[in-house]
Every structure is written in C-alpha cells, then in structure tokens.
Fold these 3 entries.
Entry 1:
Amino acid sequence: MGRLIMAVLVLALLGFAALVGYAYVADLSPATGEVKVPVTLHAD
C-alpha cells in the first residue's frame, strides 16, 4: 500500500512540474487588437 501511495505522489509531482514548465515555456499571451462595435442607445 505504501508503494501505491508513493507512486501516486510521484506522478502528481511530475504532473505539476510539467504543468508549470508548460506555462513558462508555452506562449500563453492572448491576441490583442482593437475592436470597434457600434452601440445603439435607446434614451427615452
């Protein structure tokens, strides 16, 4: 049982390290640009 818990902990740590590495290496910045949308106001 101890081996199973240790294996799960090791896999969780490796998964977390992979996620952090991907976040630092990958280009996760959003695309930026100007958006113009006409708005109709109904002021009574």
Entry 2:
Amino acid sequence: MIATPGRDDLADRVREGAAGRKAGGALGVLQGRLPMRAGDLLLKVVTGVVAAGALIAMLAILVFLLRDSWPSILYNGWHFITTLTWNVGSLYSRALSHRNGATAAFGAAYGIVPFIVGTVLSSLIAVVLAIPLSVALALLLVEYLPARIGESLSFVVELLAGVPSVVLGLWGIAVLIPWIGHDFGPWLSHWLGWIPFFRGPIGSGQGLLASGLILTVMITPIIAASTRDVLRQTPRETKDGARALGLTRWEVIRAVSLPWASSGIFGAVVLGLGRALGETMAVLMVSGSAANYLPSNIYSPIGTMAATIVSQLDSAMTDPTGMAVHALAEVALVLFLISVVVNVPARLLLSAAARRGGPETQ
C-alpha cells in the first residue's frame, strides 16, 4: 500500500505531538524549536530589572540608614529605644562624651520612646476612626448611589487623597485645633471623662487627638478608594442569587459583599496605616512637637518619629561631632523597620488569602 502525502503529513504530526507531550505539549515544541526573538529577550530583561528594582531600592535605603546610624547605634545601644530623654547635649562646649568608640557632645542622650508612642497612638486613632468611615463611604458609592453619581463622588474622593499634607496642616492649625480646644475637647472630656485617658486638661488643642484626626482625614480617602474597587469585584451572580433568596440589600452586603472583600479591605487598611506612620508635615504642624515625656491623655502634645526628624534636623546639623545627625538617621531606621514589620506580614496574609481563592486588590 502506497502512503499518500496526506498520510505522511499525518504521521509526522502524530510523532511531533508525542514528542511535544514529552516536552510539555505542542507549545513546548514550538518554544524549543523557535529561538527567542530579540524583542522578547529585551522585554524579559527589562521586566526582570523593574521587578528587582523595588527590592534593590529597599536594600539600598537600608544600607544607607545603617551606615549613617551606626555611630549612634554604638553610642546609644539599646537605650535608644528604651529611654525617654532626647538631648543633643552642649553643642558649644569643648567637652565631649565618648562611648563604645563613638563621640558625642557632652551630656548628649538620645531616647525615642516618646516618639515611638506618639507615632503608634496617633496612627492607631486614625485607623480606628478611618475604617468605619471608609467602608461606609465605599458602600455608599458602590451599593446605594446611582452609578453616575457614584462615579462623580468617587472622583472627588480620589482628589481628596491627593491633597498636599501641608495644606491639611494649615487647615488643622486654622480650624481643627481651635475646634478641639474650645468645643470638641470639652465635650469629649465631659462624656468620657470617667476614662482617665479622656480626662483633661485639654490645653490649646494641639496634641495627640489633633494628630489622630488629621491623619484620619488623610487616610480615609485612600482606604475608601481601595475598598470601593474591591467591592466592585464582588460577583454579580452571587449577589443576585442572595437577593433571589429574599435577602435585603443590607443582608446581601453583610453576607456576601463584605466577606468577599474582607481581605482587600484589610490590604487597604494596611496601605492607609503605612501612610499614617510616615506622615510628617501635617502632624508636625498640629502635634505640638513634644519630647521627653509620654502623653498623659488624648489631648497631650506629642512628637512622632517622622516629625522629629524634620523638626530636629536644622539644630542637628550644628553638632560638631555629627552624632545628632546620626541619631536622626537611627530614628529613620527604626521607622523604616516598623513600616516593614507592619507591611510584610500584611502582604503575606493577603497572599495566603489569594491562594485560598479570595478576592484581592491588585
């Protein structure tokens, strides 16, 4: 029997298909036979470099902070994060202080416990207040308002997220601080004064409460915009099925939308928390820039790590030993590590939720 050309082609294809299955399928055969084009190779290299850029940048920042803060680490040791006193010492005295091979001005002592406490408490207040406001705003935009109105208000929310912090700081000085000092602070003290932390004195309004409220204003649009995007990804079929079972709109939100978007909302909260931890100018303008003591109530003036770096930098530059600048670099190093400790576990939780098939923000 004479094989026709068509049968020969069919036999060749069968043999190629068998070889392709061994190599990973027909696509594997094509990839094995065809050389990588120059454009594909260039794209692979460029995307690899870009993907590694973030990690390289973080490592470069860490190396820079370690190098500049090393003299302060030697001089202060663990006292840096366990004591309250921040004192650059006598900058115009010839007397010097030596410790562990490092030199500082006489009487210099660097402790950042008040700045850590101020940073954590103000960020905590902001997150506690921003979560319900942001989720409620996102639900309003996605579930309750008509699509056209919701899109318009979403644009306004995104604009609020881009307002410069110094503008919000000026608003805090002109509006927020007087309101806390004359109205909201006395009202809060009257109703919650049985809790020691909410008891007076209230003071001028500058302090922890003002810092927490202005951070709330700053991070609420960020969390709300991200939460809105996650809620929009809720499967329409699942929501329609829940309504068909007789659930009300709120019951659908509570039983379907919020559980579906929970991990994405968590990611949005972490994003807002990162913004709150590192905020500088607005907090500096309303916090009172206090040092060397812990806040006794929610109205007490505070200092944060980021604001302290900005407020102390000019005077630190006059230290002939350079230790004050090194100490500020160590403050930045501690803030960097806190941000990593907060964000890395959060990203791992989000990745784990993604592997389980839950919805995530991109």
Entry 3:
Amino acid sequence: MRRLAIGLCVWTATALTLSGTDRLAYAREQQPAASPEAPADKPADPPAEAPAASPPGESATQEVAGAKTPTEGVQIKSRWDDIAVLPRRYSLKAKRVELMPMYHFTLNNPLIRHHGFGGQLNYFLSEALWLGIEGTGYLSQQFSGSDGTYFLTGAQDKVLPAVNKLIFSALLDFGYVPAYGKFALFNRAIVHWEGYVNLGVGAFMSEVIPVKRSDPAFQNISAMVKVGVGSRLFLTKFMTLNAFLSLYGYPDTFEPVANVSYNRDTNGACRDYYTGKQAGTPEFEAAYASCRKANGNTTLSLDVVFGLGLSFFLPPKFEYKGPR
C-alpha cells in the first residue's frame, strides 16, 4: 500500500508540472503585440548631434603637440639676488707687505694728551702671522688752562705736577690673527673682517715740561713695550680700514719738583755739577739739567691709546692656489 501511495503522488506531481508548462507557453503566444504607432501627443526624440569635425589640415597629433604645458607659463629668473652665497677669503695676505699710515691719541692721562702720527710696515709670513716695524711722532696737548686738569690738580695739591711729553717711539711688532669672519651689510653686500693681537718692543724719547719755565728741559730715552688688539675691515682686495686699542708701558723720568734744593745755587744740592763752570753759560745750564735728571723720579708710565689706520697691501694683486 505504501509503495502504491508513493507512486500515485509522483505521477500526480509530474502531471501537474507538465500542464503548467503548456499553459505558460500558450499565454505567451496569446499576448497581443505592441502597437507600432506612437501616441500622437508624445513628441519624437531629436536626432543625435554629429561629432565635431577637426579643423581642415590639423590632425589630433598636431593638436596635442601644440598644446601648452603647465610649466610653460612659469617665468624663469635670470638673476638670483635673493640668494646670498658665502664667498671664500676675500684677500690673501701671505707673503705680502702691509703699509699702514695711522693716527692715535691717549685716553687715560688727565694732564696731557698725546696725538701720535706714524706708520707701520708689516710683512705677513702667513695669513695669520706677521712681523713689522712701527714708528710714531707725537704732538702734545697739555691741559694747562685755568679750567684744565693740570692747573686744577696743582691748585688742589698746592704743587704743580710733573709732566713729560713724548717725542717719538720706534718698535718691532709681532702680530697674530686669531679670528676671521664676514657679515652682511644691509643685506646687500658681504663684508670681510679679521681681529688681531700684537706685541711690540722698542724704545721711546720723552722730554720734561718744566714747572718753572726758566728751568732747562731734559730728555729721556728708554725701552718701551706695547700690547694691543685691533681689527681690519676689508674695503678692497688691497686696502683695509684698521681700528686698534693699545697699551704702551715705559719707565719715564720726571723732574724733582718736590725738592726745591736742586736749583742754580752753586752751594746747593747741584754744586758738584757746577765745578769749573761759570753761571749763565751753556755748560752751566747743561750741568743744571744733568743734575735735575740724575735726581729725578723714575716712574712706570702706562698710556692707553685708541687709533685708526688705513692699510695698503703690496703687491695689490694676488693669486689663489688650490690644493693638488
């Protein structure tokens, strides 16, 4: 019975399937076709626009070749003023001679001011080391007016101070350049400069300015030492502007102002110098000056000076030599 029931179910399902397929095909055949005529109220679609025709005589390749690229509109700079390049050393000094006229004046002496006019002649052994000679002549400016420090000091101390004036100085100089650099001037030009130190040894001559104008003056010659610092500002490849600050030290002998016994009295403290000499003669005055100098006061004098100079390097031209 079970097998019979299953068989009936299978046959029934097969029959239903076949009958449904026939109805679907028949329905498709009976579906009416669409009307070939469009409704009268619906406008017809416009025809498609024809593609644009290329200009006569010009192909697509030529059109692409003639098109401008985005970089063709960029203007290329012909000058680069806004880019600063640090140049190499502006001037070479090795094996060249420096000739420098100079002027300087003392800063620390309240009684007298010395104005020095002179020059230096230096030979550079290398870019940083030089040897040279220096010579200076001096003009003195004594503050002896009624409102000057020389007169006021004498009025306060009741004794006029002893003052000497420098005549000349000559030194052998040794110099070294420890620093070299450059800076931008108003963001337009690059200026080169260098700083140096120097040491000098030599001699000087000074002359006493007598407190009593009737007394003879005498001169001193002794050793002198100089220590200084300075800088060079390169104006051209063979010319520089120098500024320096120096200290000159030297032992100077002043007249014996405090001891009035050293006078022209033939029986006074200078009587041994007057032996065989007649008063009023040049020999007597020279002996009087020698007596005052021998009994003068020797003191270490220190002069701080500030000066300016203009250097010229010879020969004017030089040549750079690069490493092999």
